[in-house]
């Protein structure tokens, strides 16, 4: 693999991940998996900072939990977009934290 391709796979991007899953068991599995990769900002919404490789692995893993009628949405958040996030209420801006898969 060319170095620039390897760098693209390792460069981290922030993502907002929102899911709508009807079954409690599958919803808990998705929640637990996303909790291992990011910060929960709403009950079914997470912010995750992932490399392209981590993103692909996480998408594949979560897709296995979905059934007809379920959905997961992935929204990329650029640096400017993340800094411009506004919120009202007790929720705060998640800390910038590194996450590692073991």
Q: What would a concise description of this structure say?
A:
This protein has 102 residues and is an alpha+beta fold. The chain is 36% helix and 27% strand. It has a four-stranded antiparallel β-sheet with strand order 2-3-1-4.
Describe the structure.
The chain is α+β, with helices and mostly antiparallel strands. The protein has a domain at 12-82: Alpha-Beta Plaits (2-Layer Sandwich). 36% of the residues lie in helices and 27% in strands. A four-stranded antiparallel β-sheet has the order 2-3-1-4. Strand 2 (38-42) and strand 3 (45-51) form a beta hairpin. The longest helix has 12 residues, at 24-35. The two termini are 23 Å apart.
Q: Which strand order do you get reading across the main beta sheet?
A: 2-3-1-4
Number of strands: 4
Largest sheet: 4 strands, antiparallel
- Per CATH, the architecture of the domain at 12-82 is 2-Layer Sandwich
Helical percent range?
Answer: 25-40%
Shape: flat
What top-tier CATH class of the domain at 12-82 fits best? Alpha Beta
Number of helices, counting only DSSP H or I runs of 4 residues or more: 4
SSE order in H/E notation?
Answer: HEHEEHEH
Q: Which structural class matches the secondary elements?
A: alpha+beta
The unreliable regions are none
Cα Rg: 14 Å
What CATH calls the topology of the domain at 12-82 is Alpha-Beta Plaits
Give the distance, in angstroms, between the N- and C-terminal Cα atoms.
Answer: 23 Å
Give the percentage of residues in beta strands.
25-35%
Mean pLDDT: 84
């Amino acid at each position: 693999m060319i170095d620039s391709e390897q760098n693209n796979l390792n460069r981290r991007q922030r993502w907002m991940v929102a899911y709508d899953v009807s079954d409690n068991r599958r919803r808990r599995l998705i929640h637990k998996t996303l909790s291992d990769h990011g910060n929960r900002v709403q009950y079914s919404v997470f912010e995750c900072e992932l490399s392209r490789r981590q993103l692909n692995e996480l998408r594949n893993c979560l897709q296995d939990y979905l059934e007809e009628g379920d959905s997961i949405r992935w929204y990329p958040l650029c640096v400017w977009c993340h800094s411009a996030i506004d919120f009202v209420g007790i929720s705060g801006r998640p800390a910038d934290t590194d996450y590692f898969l073991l």
